[in-house]
Amino acid sequence: MKQTIFIIGLGLIGGSLALGLKRKDGLTIVGYDSNENSLVTAKKLGVIDEIASNMEDAAQQADIIVFATPVSITIDLMKLLPTWKLKENVIITDTGSTKNEIMNAAEVLKHFGITFIGGHPMAGSHKSGIGAARAYLFENAYYMLTPFVDEAEENLKRLKDILLVTKAKLVEISAQEHDHMTATVSHFPHLIAASLVHQLSEENKSFPFTKQLAAGGFRDITRIASSNPIMWRDITMQNRQEISNQLQLWTEEMLRLKHLIEKADQKDIEEYFAQAKQIRDDLPIAQGALYSVYDLYVDVPDYAGVISEVIGYLAKEDISITNLRIVETREDIFGILVISFQSMEDRAKAVKCIATHTSFDTYIA
Ligand SMILES: NC(=O)C1=CN([C@@H]2O[C@H](COP(=O)(O)OP(=O)(O)OC[C@H]3O[C@@H](n4cnc5c(N)ncnc54)[C@H](O)[C@@H]3O)[C@@H](O)[C@H]2O)C=CC1
Ligand SMILES: O=C(O)C(=O)Cc1ccc(O)cc1
Predict the structure, then answer these.
(1) Which of the residues 10, 136, 169, 273 has the least number of beta carbons within 10 Å of its own beta carbon?
(2) What residue ranges are annotated as transmembrane (predicted)?
(3) Model confidence, pTM
(4) Is residue 95 in contact with ligand 1, taking CB distance under 6 Å?
């Protein structure tokens, strides 16, 4: 069946969804963005089939409308829907990181007979904009749907059939559960990352060399502090109660930790780290990892040309990489080269390839 999908907001998520959906025949992807540059780039890169010069006109032609805008904008735009002449069977959805306030806004639409099914792909990155969009972004990632409990099965099936093209794993939950769990694994960690960066900045005033020392661990734990501030302002505003609850729990945990340190009990301190390591090591990697990159750590000796040598072996076997970085380079110890892949399969091939051609150890974090 031919269908027109209208995506509003062509940044990282809207662009990735468009690219993911383009793999299915019979779908026409129409896009709109308030930023003219993003719109033109999306068309030029082939992310969308057609540019919508006017939101209302494009919405009237659409079978599915997706809001992939910052969550505050999504709520503003949802208010316009009852004033537009939409197709009778149109399904509206969104990709926002919060769901409670969006589903509250959707209650209003329900009174106008407009179908809205909330959505949130649990994949993304600290990058934003159309240039960061990738067709495979949602592959294997959880994609949460928050339909009203009385939503017609037929509508849900229609939306799921489309979204499954992205190869995401669709999960239905309530908006409340969604906002509670994402506060724990996504929203609150962004506050921690931002606060650690602020703490470094303060320290740096008295000890100006500190920043230079901010190497692997600090960079890993604060990567998400480089995310789009407008997006995170909106998420924090919309989920502030759950985030505040997490902050309370964290504060209590920090006090417990402070007590542990002041007691100076080696055994307890070791146990604290050991338990955390165990839990962290047991986290499912491909399923539910928010940032779905597949990193491989390679212990490479520090000699000229070693990196191009490793990359050369991978290239010869046609294993494509998405990123490359060095987390430690010191003369006396091995350097750790981190290679990122698009999929687990590519990473597994790389492990074999490196083992065949070198004696370097490889690790998966
Ligand atoms: N960045 C991430 O990793 C993830 C983000 N999300 C959610 O997806 C949504 C989009 O996020 P991103 O794509 O990362 O943001 P982005 O900043 O890359 O893209 C948002 C796009 O919306 C456009 N926009 C802003 N106001 C608009 C308006 N009034 N009309 C039309 N377009 C407008 C912007 O120009 C921009 O191109 C947000 O609600 C976010 O919470 C969900 C999962 C992951
Ligand atoms: O870069 C990361 O690890 C993220 O945290 C990406 C992300 C951002 C927002 C979401 O709602 C879901 C995923």
Answers:
(1) 273
(2) none
(3) 0.84
(4) yes
Q: Is the pLDDT of residue 342 over 70?
A: yes
Phi-psi sector, 330: left (phi>0), alpha (psi -120 to 50), beta: beta
Nearest to 191 by CA among 170, 222, 216: 222
Considering the domain architecture, whether residues 301 and 274 belong to the same structural domain is answered as no
Nearest residue (CA) to ligand 2, atom 11: 97
Q: Give the CATH number, domain containing residue 150.
A: 3.40.50.720
- Total count of domains within the chain: 3
How many angstroms separate the CA atoms of 110 and 40, rounded? 34
Helices (H) and strands (E) in the chain, counts: 15, 12
Contact 146 CB / ligand 2 (< 6 Å): no
| pLDDT surpasses 70 at 92 | yes
Boundary-marking domain end, from 281, 309, 325: 281
Which atom of ligand 2 is found nearest the CA of 235?
Answer: 11
Q: Which domain holds residue 227?
A: 178-281
Higher confidence at residue 280 or residue 69? 69
**Are 100 and 9 found together in one domain?**
yes
Which residue's CA is the nearest one to ligand 1's atom 40? 96
Q: Is 224 in the pocket of ligand 2 (CB under 6 A)?
A: yes
For residue 273, give the CATH number of its domain. Answer: 1.10.3660.10
ipTM for the assembly: 0.99
| Ligand 2 center to 112 CA (angstroms) | 33
